[in-house]
Amino acid sequence: MPLPQEFHEIARRVTNWGRWGADDEIGTLNLITEQVVREAAGCIRSGRRVPLALPLRQDGVQTGMIPGRVNPLHTMVAINQEIFGPGTVATSDDAVTMGLQAATHWDGLTHVSHSGRLYNDRPAASVTAHGGATVLGIEKATPITSRGVLLDVARAHGTDRLPGGHAVTPEDLDAAEELAGTRVRAGDIVLVRTGQLQHYLAGDRQGYAFPSPGLSVRTPEWFRARDVAAVANDTLTFEIFPPEIEGLWMPVHALHLVEMGMLQGQNWDLEELSAACAEAGRYAFFLSAMAEPFVGGSGAPVAPVAIL
Question: What are phi and psi of 144, to 5 degrees?
Fold first, then answer.
Protein backbone atom coordinates (compact mmCIF):
# COMPACT_ATOMS: atom_id res chain seq x y z
CA MET A 1 0.00 0.00 0.00
CA PRO A 2 1.24 3.57 -0.65
CA LEU A 3 2.65 5.55 2.25
CA PRO A 4 -0.25 7.30 3.98
CA GLN A 5 -0.67 11.05 4.27
CA GLU A 6 0.15 10.83 7.98
CA PHE A 7 3.64 9.59 7.11
CA HIS A 8 4.27 12.43 4.64
CA GLU A 9 3.10 15.00 7.18
CA ILE A 10 5.57 13.70 9.77
CA ALA A 11 8.29 13.62 7.11
CA ARG A 12 7.77 17.33 6.40
CA ARG A 13 8.10 18.14 10.09
CA VAL A 14 11.32 16.19 10.69
CA THR A 15 13.21 16.55 7.41
CA ASN A 16 16.81 17.77 7.42
CA TRP A 17 17.19 17.93 3.64
CA GLY A 18 19.38 20.91 2.79
CA ARG A 19 20.05 21.78 6.42
CA TRP A 20 23.80 21.21 6.07
CA GLY A 21 24.00 21.95 2.37
CA ALA A 22 23.06 20.15 -0.82
CA ASP A 23 26.23 18.01 -0.78
CA ASP A 24 25.90 16.77 2.80
CA GLU A 25 26.31 13.00 3.25
CA ILE A 26 26.42 12.57 7.04
CA GLY A 27 23.16 14.08 8.24
CA THR A 28 22.74 14.45 11.99
CA LEU A 29 26.35 13.42 12.64
CA ASN A 30 27.01 17.09 11.84
CA LEU A 31 25.61 17.76 15.30
CA ILE A 32 28.59 16.05 16.94
CA THR A 33 30.85 19.08 17.06
CA GLU A 34 34.23 19.39 18.75
CA GLN A 35 32.51 21.22 21.60
CA VAL A 36 30.02 18.35 22.00
CA VAL A 37 32.88 15.83 22.18
CA ARG A 38 34.80 17.93 24.75
CA GLU A 39 31.71 18.11 26.94
CA ALA A 40 31.07 14.38 26.47
CA ALA A 41 34.55 13.61 27.80
CA GLY A 42 33.48 15.26 31.07
CA CYS A 43 31.03 12.37 31.61
CA ILE A 44 33.94 10.03 32.37
CA ARG A 45 34.26 9.72 36.14
CA SER A 46 34.96 6.15 37.21
CA GLY A 47 36.49 5.01 33.92
CA ARG A 48 34.30 1.90 33.92
CA ARG A 49 34.04 0.54 30.38
CA VAL A 50 30.87 -1.28 29.36
CA PRO A 51 30.90 -3.16 26.03
CA LEU A 52 27.64 -2.99 24.10
CA ALA A 53 28.28 -5.36 21.16
CA LEU A 54 27.06 -8.91 20.74
CA PRO A 55 29.68 -11.55 19.89
CA LEU A 56 29.95 -12.25 16.16
CA ARG A 57 28.99 -15.92 15.89
CA GLN A 58 27.40 -18.33 13.45
CA ASP A 59 24.40 -18.91 15.74
CA GLY A 60 23.82 -15.15 16.08
CA VAL A 61 20.63 -13.12 16.09
CA GLN A 62 19.67 -13.61 12.45
CA THR A 63 16.92 -16.19 11.91
CA GLY A 64 16.42 -15.87 8.15
CA MET A 65 13.52 -13.47 8.61
CA ILE A 66 15.53 -10.79 6.78
CA PRO A 67 16.57 -12.26 3.40
CA GLY A 68 20.31 -12.35 2.77
CA ARG A 69 21.29 -11.09 6.21
CA VAL A 70 23.43 -14.03 7.30
CA ASN A 71 25.14 -14.65 10.62
CA PRO A 72 28.95 -14.64 10.52
CA LEU A 73 30.52 -17.74 8.96
CA HIS A 74 34.07 -17.94 10.29
CA THR A 75 36.64 -19.94 8.30
CA MET A 76 40.32 -20.59 8.96
CA VAL A 77 42.32 -20.08 5.77
CA ALA A 78 45.73 -20.83 7.28
CA ILE A 79 46.70 -22.70 10.46
CA ASN A 80 50.25 -22.41 11.78
CA GLN A 81 51.55 -22.22 8.22
CA GLU A 82 55.30 -21.70 7.82
CA ILE A 83 54.94 -19.59 4.69
CA PHE A 84 58.63 -18.65 4.59
CA GLY A 85 59.89 -22.20 4.91
CA PRO A 86 60.41 -24.89 7.58
CA GLY A 87 61.39 -23.58 11.00
CA THR A 88 60.29 -20.02 10.26
CA VAL A 89 57.57 -18.05 12.02
CA ALA A 90 54.19 -19.69 11.41
CA THR A 91 50.97 -17.78 10.82
CA SER A 92 47.27 -18.42 11.15
CA ASP A 93 44.70 -16.43 9.20
CA ASP A 94 40.94 -16.44 8.97
CA ALA A 95 38.09 -15.02 6.92
CA VAL A 96 34.45 -14.30 7.54
CA THR A 97 31.29 -14.08 5.44
CA MET A 98 28.48 -12.12 7.06
CA GLY A 99 25.78 -9.55 6.59
CA LEU A 100 27.14 -6.12 7.50
CA GLN A 101 24.05 -5.68 9.67
CA ALA A 102 24.13 -9.22 11.07
CA ALA A 103 24.74 -8.38 14.71
CA THR A 104 25.37 -5.08 16.56
CA HIS A 105 25.41 -2.47 13.81
CA TRP A 106 24.54 0.93 12.46
CA ASP A 107 22.03 1.25 9.63
CA GLY A 108 23.53 3.62 7.06
CA LEU A 109 21.65 6.32 5.20
CA THR A 110 21.13 4.10 2.14
CA HIS A 111 19.65 1.19 4.07
CA VAL A 112 16.13 2.25 3.10
CA SER A 113 14.56 4.65 0.63
CA HIS A 114 11.05 5.86 -0.02
CA SER A 115 9.36 7.46 -3.01
CA GLY A 116 12.54 6.80 -5.00
CA ARG A 117 14.69 9.06 -2.81
CA LEU A 118 17.42 8.80 -0.17
CA TYR A 119 18.55 11.37 2.38
CA ASN A 120 19.08 14.90 1.09
CA ASP A 121 17.04 14.20 -2.05
CA ARG A 122 19.56 11.75 -3.54
CA PRO A 123 18.13 9.17 -5.97
CA ALA A 124 17.59 5.66 -4.63
CA ALA A 125 19.05 4.45 -7.93
CA SER A 126 22.47 5.67 -6.72
CA VAL A 127 22.69 2.32 -4.87
CA THR A 128 23.98 -0.12 -7.48
CA ALA A 129 24.77 -3.83 -7.61
CA HIS A 130 28.48 -3.31 -8.21
CA GLY A 131 29.17 -0.02 -6.43
CA GLY A 132 26.80 -0.38 -3.52
CA ALA A 133 26.07 3.03 -2.04
CA THR A 134 27.76 5.37 -4.52
CA VAL A 135 26.74 8.28 -2.29
CA LEU A 136 25.87 8.34 1.42
CA GLY A 137 27.91 5.17 2.07
CA ILE A 138 28.61 4.16 5.65
CA GLU A 139 32.29 4.99 5.12
CA LYS A 140 31.29 8.67 5.07
CA ALA A 141 30.21 8.52 8.72
CA THR A 142 32.55 10.68 10.76
CA PRO A 143 34.12 9.28 13.96
CA ILE A 144 31.09 8.57 16.13
CA THR A 145 32.05 9.62 19.64
CA SER A 146 29.73 11.72 21.74
CA ARG A 147 27.75 11.86 24.95
CA GLY A 148 25.56 8.80 25.18
CA VAL A 149 22.32 8.81 27.15
CA LEU A 150 20.56 5.59 28.13
CA LEU A 151 16.80 5.94 28.05
CA ASP A 152 15.86 2.83 29.99
CA VAL A 153 12.20 2.62 29.02
CA ALA A 154 11.77 -0.83 30.56
CA ARG A 155 13.10 0.34 33.94
CA ALA A 156 10.99 3.51 33.75
CA HIS A 157 7.97 1.21 33.38
CA GLY A 158 9.04 -0.69 36.49
CA THR A 159 9.78 -3.85 34.53
CA ASP A 160 12.82 -5.72 33.26
CA ARG A 161 11.44 -6.23 29.75
CA LEU A 162 8.68 -4.58 27.75
CA PRO A 163 6.05 -6.87 26.22
CA GLY A 164 6.33 -7.73 22.55
CA GLY A 165 3.48 -5.48 21.46
CA HIS A 166 4.75 -2.33 23.18
CA ALA A 167 5.25 0.68 20.91
CA VAL A 168 7.72 3.04 22.60
CA THR A 169 6.10 6.48 22.55
CA PRO A 170 7.36 10.03 23.14
CA GLU A 171 5.73 9.78 26.56
CA ASP A 172 7.84 6.70 27.28
CA LEU A 173 10.97 8.59 26.26
CA ASP A 174 9.96 11.48 28.53
CA ALA A 175 9.56 9.08 31.47
CA ALA A 176 12.93 7.45 30.78
CA GLU A 177 14.54 10.87 30.45
CA GLU A 178 13.13 11.79 33.87
CA LEU A 179 14.53 8.55 35.30
CA ALA A 180 17.91 9.39 33.75
CA GLY A 181 17.96 12.75 35.50
CA THR A 182 19.37 14.52 32.46
CA ARG A 183 17.82 16.15 29.42
CA VAL A 184 18.82 14.82 26.03
CA ARG A 185 20.61 17.59 24.15
CA ALA A 186 21.93 18.38 20.69
CA GLY A 187 24.62 15.99 19.50
CA ASP A 188 23.77 13.22 21.98
CA ILE A 189 23.52 9.59 20.96
CA VAL A 190 20.45 8.04 22.55
CA LEU A 191 20.29 4.35 23.49
CA VAL A 192 16.75 3.07 24.11
CA ARG A 193 16.48 -0.06 26.25
CA THR A 194 13.41 -2.28 25.99
CA GLY A 195 14.90 -5.42 27.55
CA GLN A 196 14.01 -7.42 24.42
CA LEU A 197 17.58 -8.70 24.02
CA GLN A 198 17.05 -10.87 27.10
CA HIS A 199 15.24 -13.35 24.84
CA TYR A 200 18.33 -13.81 22.68
CA LEU A 201 20.71 -13.92 25.64
CA ALA A 202 18.55 -16.72 27.08
CA GLY A 203 18.86 -18.69 23.82
CA ASP A 204 15.47 -17.80 22.29
CA ARG A 205 16.29 -16.32 18.88
CA GLN A 206 12.73 -16.57 17.56
CA GLY A 207 11.31 -14.91 20.65
CA TYR A 208 13.84 -12.12 20.24
CA ALA A 209 12.86 -11.51 16.62
CA PHE A 210 9.09 -11.62 16.87
CA PRO A 211 6.99 -10.08 18.27
CA SER A 212 9.15 -7.18 19.34
CA PRO A 213 8.68 -3.89 21.14
CA GLY A 214 10.22 -0.93 19.38
CA LEU A 215 10.03 2.71 18.47
CA SER A 216 6.67 4.19 17.50
CA VAL A 217 6.17 6.27 14.36
CA ARG A 218 5.50 9.14 16.78
CA THR A 219 9.08 9.17 18.14
CA PRO A 220 11.07 10.69 15.22
CA GLU A 221 9.64 14.10 16.08
CA TRP A 222 10.91 13.67 19.66
CA PHE A 223 14.45 12.99 18.41
CA ARG A 224 14.25 15.82 15.88
CA ALA A 225 13.14 18.32 18.52
CA ARG A 226 16.22 17.48 20.63
CA ASP A 227 18.63 17.30 17.67
CA VAL A 228 19.79 13.80 18.53
CA ALA A 229 22.83 12.71 16.49
CA ALA A 230 22.01 8.98 16.37
CA VAL A 231 19.84 6.42 18.15
CA ALA A 232 20.19 2.70 18.84
CA ASN A 233 18.28 0.05 20.75
CA ASP A 234 18.28 -3.57 21.86
CA THR A 235 15.94 -5.12 19.27
CA LEU A 236 16.30 -6.81 15.88
CA THR A 237 13.84 -4.57 14.03
CA PHE A 238 14.36 -1.25 15.90
CA GLU A 239 10.73 -0.20 15.48
CA ILE A 240 7.77 -2.14 16.81
CA PHE A 241 7.19 -5.39 14.92
CA PRO A 242 4.59 -6.19 13.66
CA PRO A 243 3.97 -2.51 12.82
CA GLU A 244 1.59 -0.37 14.84
CA ILE A 245 -0.19 0.81 11.66
CA GLU A 246 -1.36 -2.16 9.63
CA GLY A 247 0.43 -2.41 6.31
CA LEU A 248 2.89 0.43 7.08
CA TRP A 249 6.25 -1.32 7.26
CA MET A 250 9.45 0.37 8.46
CA PRO A 251 8.15 3.95 8.67
CA VAL A 252 10.58 4.84 11.48
CA HIS A 253 13.50 3.60 9.37
CA ALA A 254 12.36 5.85 6.52
CA LEU A 255 11.84 8.89 8.74
CA HIS A 256 15.19 8.52 10.50
CA LEU A 257 17.42 7.52 7.61
CA VAL A 258 15.79 9.20 4.62
CA GLU A 259 14.22 12.34 6.07
CA MET A 260 16.43 13.13 9.06
CA GLY A 261 19.71 11.62 7.89
CA MET A 262 20.08 10.00 11.32
CA LEU A 263 21.87 6.69 11.79
CA GLN A 264 20.05 4.07 13.82
CA GLY A 265 21.45 0.95 15.43
CA GLN A 266 20.06 -2.45 16.31
CA ASN A 267 21.06 -5.46 18.42
CA TRP A 268 22.91 -3.38 21.00
CA ASP A 269 23.41 -5.16 24.31
CA LEU A 270 22.22 -2.66 26.91
CA GLU A 271 21.78 -5.09 29.82
CA GLU A 272 25.08 -4.49 31.64
CA LEU A 273 24.81 -0.77 30.90
CA SER A 274 21.34 -0.66 32.46
CA ALA A 275 22.67 -2.19 35.66
CA ALA A 276 25.76 0.03 35.67
CA CYS A 277 23.75 3.23 35.18
CA ALA A 278 21.27 2.28 37.91
CA GLU A 279 24.13 1.48 40.27
CA ALA A 280 25.93 4.76 39.53
CA GLY A 281 22.72 6.79 39.59
CA ARG A 282 23.53 8.45 36.28
CA TYR A 283 22.59 7.60 32.72
CA ALA A 284 24.96 9.80 30.69
CA PHE A 285 28.40 8.60 29.61
CA PHE A 286 31.05 8.93 26.94
CA LEU A 287 30.20 6.70 23.98
CA SER A 288 32.58 5.44 21.31
CA ALA A 289 30.70 3.80 18.43
CA MET A 290 32.61 4.11 15.15
CA ALA A 291 31.14 2.19 12.23
CA GLU A 292 33.50 -0.06 10.28
CA PRO A 293 34.18 2.00 7.12
CA PHE A 294 33.02 -0.42 4.43
CA VAL A 295 33.11 1.60 1.21
CA GLY A 296 29.67 1.63 -0.38
CA GLY A 297 28.11 -0.09 2.62
CA SER A 298 24.46 0.49 3.54
CA GLY A 299 25.35 -0.35 7.14
CA ALA A 300 28.23 -1.66 9.18
CA PRO A 301 29.12 -3.61 12.29
CA VAL A 302 30.10 -1.63 15.36
CA ALA A 303 31.66 -2.55 18.71
CA PRO A 304 30.43 0.32 20.88
CA VAL A 305 31.78 1.02 24.36
CA ALA A 306 30.19 3.21 27.03
CA ILE A 307 32.65 4.78 29.46
CA LEU A 308 31.22 5.95 32.77
Answer: -95, 90
Counting beta carbons within 10 angstroms of the beta carbon of residue 170, is it exposed (0 to 12), middle (13 to 18) or buried (19 or more)? middle
Closest to 308 measured CA to CA, from 123, 62, 51 = 51
- Of 55, 35, 11, the closest CA to residue 188 belongs to 35
Q: What's the whole-model pTM score?
A: 0.97
Cβ-based burial of 142 (10 A; exposed 0-12, middle 13-18, buried ≥19): exposed
Residue type (1 letter), 40: A
d(CA 19, CA 29): 12
Whether pLDDT at 203 is above 80: yes
Angle, alpha carbons 236-241-245 (nearest 5°)? 145
The string of DSSP letters for 29-56 reads GGG--HHHHHHHHTT-SS--EEE-PPP-
Cα 254 to Cα 243: distance, rounded to the nearest angstrom: 13
Does residue 145 have a pLDDT over 90?
Answer: yes
12-62 pLDDT, tens per residue? 999 999 999 999 999 999 999 999 999 999 999 999 999 999 999 999 999
Average pLDDT for 97-119: 98
Q: Contact 283/180 with Cβ under 8 angstroms?
A: yes
301 vs 106: CA distance, rounded Å:
6
d(CA 173, CA 78): 49
Give the residue-averaged pLDDT of 231-257.
Answer: 96
The CATH topology of domain 5-65+99-307 is Glucose Oxidase; domain 1 (3.50.30)
| DSSP secondary structure string for all residues of 143-185 | P-EEEEEEEEHHHHTTSSS--TTPEE-HHHHHHHHHHHTS---
